[in-house]
Amino acid sequence: GRNLLRTTRVRPFASLWRNASTLTFLETSQGKGLTPSSLSVLSAAKQLKNPIVAILLGPDAKESSSTLLEKFECLGLEKVIVVGDKRLEHYLPELVSPLLKDLLSKGDYSHFVMASNYVGKSILPRVAALLDNQPVCDVVAIKDPKTFVRPIYAGNALSVVKCSQDKTLISIRASAFEPVTAGSSKTAKIEELNYERTEEVDIRWEGCKMVDSDMPDLTSAKIVVAGGRALKDKETFDSLLVPLAKKLHGAIGATRAAVDNGFCNNSLQVGQTGKIVAPDLYIAAGISGAVQHLAGMKDSKIVVAINNDPDAPIFKNADLGIEGDVFEILPELTKKLP
Ligand code: FAD
């Protein structure tokens, strides 16, 4: 009882009397500037209607901060905090979390927003624990600055949660927030901070092996061509899906059955235990439409299903259904496209 009273601080209207502002955590991808999910983070932050401060870490931070200010002044960014230290390059949570904790406990921030990707999933809970705060993770909609919508039961239901803490820490699903687009250019402040920490942590970045691919990234692609068990094996999965995806400039996705049967790498799995996607067009080829798969793609704008079983559940979740054999339909579709 005592413990609970101590840790539950209820200050429902804190942001009305405080000088509210939102700290956003933006990521860069080696030399390629801001990641697409960072643009969605900014779009979510805009809905909170506070002045926005952005933080960028690592060796790319300085350059990305200038781009950010040039392109996105329309957001009314108050300032960009740059911590250019090389040690922060890979967003090691052991290094980043204490830094964010310091910033959030000193500043007048009412909100903190980051993406619910692998970086956010490893950092946000740590920052929250250090601040004795409860974060709201996986937000898909913002009702007001204290009220958020997030999926529960693997996306089968949506819950609305109200946050009554004086600092609101959220992670957002990038696919649920349209990335911000560039606006007029006017310069705001850039504040360079030194990373003071000198003590060693027990975790060290050893390396990263990127999967070589000339296809767009699955989570940010506008078009996804996904295949299921019906594609039979790796050879047919590749020969049927890759040419179609290439013509559409889309990414390849897969069901767990396709991954488990070795048709493709598990980084392509869409669903409850895979990636969450919401492209403009999702083509589901030879996919039954299990709830665990739907959990990862049902927010796609247009779903086209190709299946030879008229009773396949995927048809109930599709805007367009093609009843037929994937081995005939996919090559025909690819041939007909310009
Ligand atoms: P199937 O269900 O076997 O469907 C194949 C479909 O292809 C059928 O509808 C069939 O009619 C059709 N078909 C067959 N031949 C042809 C043809 N020649 N032409 C056209 N159509 C044809 N699954 C995921 O996808 N992602 C997840 O993240 C995920 N997480 C899971 C987590 C848990 C805890 C559990 C228990 C399961 C999870 N699953 C997940 C598995 C999920 O339940 C399904 O088993 C899986 O999605 C089925 O994959 P599928 O549609 O490729 O295969």
UniProtKB/TrEMBL annotation:
<keyword id="KW-0274">FAD</keyword>
<keyword id="KW-0813">Transport</keyword>
<feature type="binding site">
    <location>
        <begin position="255"/>
        <end position="256"/>
    </location>
    <ligand>
        <name>FAD</name>
    </ligand>
</feature>
<dbReference type="InterPro" id="IPR029035">
    <property type="entry name" value="DHS-like_NAD/FAD-binding_dom"/>
</dbReference>
<feature type="binding site">
    <location>
        <position position="229"/>
    </location>
    <ligand>
        <name>FAD</name>
    </ligand>
</feature>
<dbReference type="InterPro" id="IPR018206">
    <property type="entry name" value="ETF_asu_C_CS"/>
</dbReference>
<comment type="subunit">
    <text>Heterodimer of an alpha and a beta subunit.</text>
</comment>
<keyword id="KW-0496">Mitochondrion</keyword>
<dbReference type="GO" id="GO:0009055">
    <property type="term" value="F:electron transfer activity"/>
</dbReference>
<feature type="domain" description="Electron transfer flavoprotein alpha/beta-subunit N-terminal">
    <location>
        <begin position="22"/>
        <end position="200"/>
    </location>
</feature>
<dbReference type="InterPro" id="IPR033947">
    <property type="entry name" value="ETF_alpha_N"/>
</dbReference>
<dbReference type="InterPro" id="IPR014730">
    <property type="entry name" value="ETF_a/b_N"/>
</dbReference>
<feature type="binding site">
    <location>
        <position position="307"/>
    </location>
    <ligand>
        <name>FAD</name>
    </ligand>
</feature>
<comment type="similarity">
    <text>Belongs to the ETF alpha-subunit/FixB family.</text>
</comment>
<dbReference type="Pfam" id="PF00766">
    <property type="entry name" value="ETF_alpha"/>
</dbReference>
<feature type="binding site">
    <location>
        <begin position="286"/>
        <end position="293"/>
    </location>
    <ligand>
        <name>FAD</name>
    </ligand>
</feature>
<dbReference type="InterPro" id="IPR001308">
    <property type="entry name" value="ETF_a/FixB"/>
</dbReference>
<dbReference type="GO" id="GO:0033539">
    <property type="term" value="P:fatty acid beta-oxidation using acyl-CoA dehydrogenase"/>
</dbReference>
<comment type="function">
    <text>The electron transfer flavoprotein serves as a specific electron acceptor for several dehydrogenases, including five acyl-CoA dehydrogenases, glutaryl-CoA and sarcosine dehydrogenase. It transfers the electrons to the main mitochondrial respiratory chain via ETF-ubiquinone oxidoreductase (ETF dehydrogenase).</text>
</comment>
<dbReference type="GO" id="GO:0050660">
    <property type="term" value="F:flavin adenine dinucleotide binding"/>
</dbReference>
<dbReference type="InterPro" id="IPR014729">
    <property type="entry name" value="Rossmann-like_a/b/a_fold"/>
</dbReference>
<dbReference type="GO" id="GO:0005759">
    <property type="term" value="C:mitochondrial matrix"/>
</dbReference>
<dbReference type="Pfam" id="PF01012">
    <property type="entry name" value="ETF"/>
</dbReference>
<keyword id="KW-0285">Flavoprotein</keyword>
<protein>
    <recommendedName>
        <fullName>Probable electron transfer flavoprotein subunit alpha</fullName>
    </recommendedName>
</protein>
<dbReference type="InterPro" id="IPR014731">
    <property type="entry name" value="ETF_asu_C"/>
</dbReference>
<feature type="binding site">
    <location>
        <begin position="269"/>
        <end position="273"/>
    </location>
    <ligand>
        <name>FAD</name>
    </ligand>
</feature>
<keyword id="KW-0249">Electron transport</keyword>
